[in-house]
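Recall that a protein's primary structure is simply its ordered list of amino acids. Everything else, from secondary elements to tertiary packing, is in principle encoded there. The following example makes that idea concrete.
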Amino acid sequence: MAFFIENEIGADFGFDIQKVAADVMEETLMEENCPYEAQVNLLITDNEGIHEINRQHRGVDAPTDVLSFPMICFEKESDFDAVETDEADYFEPESGELVLGDIIISADKVREQADKYGHSTKREFAFLVAHSMLHLCGYDHVEEKAAKEMEQKQEQVLAALGITREN
């Protein structure tokens, strides 16, 4: 798996951001049975930066915790067979990796929400990466049933990595 992290604000959460992100991304793709090597871009910014991106791309004039910009329009969640029909659109020509999309995380929201929910910044960061990875795999949480499925999958990924609310 190839992932590219841009930490534009030099955020430091007291753990290895790159390792935690990579572990969560890889575990999510394993849980979702992705048969390809994949590529994901991760940008870590602050509330001001994510607010501007949210306004420009979604028309929402407020900061948020995480934004996901999938490159694949899945008809069914994690149906990776569908990408083979439009191979030229979804795979990086040089590496052959499946380009899943971009994740943008607000470091300010990671800290705020970790404090609000009473768990570590590592747990909050990992949760947001898992949440966004599921969006890149075609999941959403508009309907209650889909939201519950996403929540269960996020918890499954974090549990597999031993990232709990206690650590």
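The helical segments are 17-31, 47-58, 87-90, 107-117, 121-136, 144-160. The chain has a mean pLDDT of 95.
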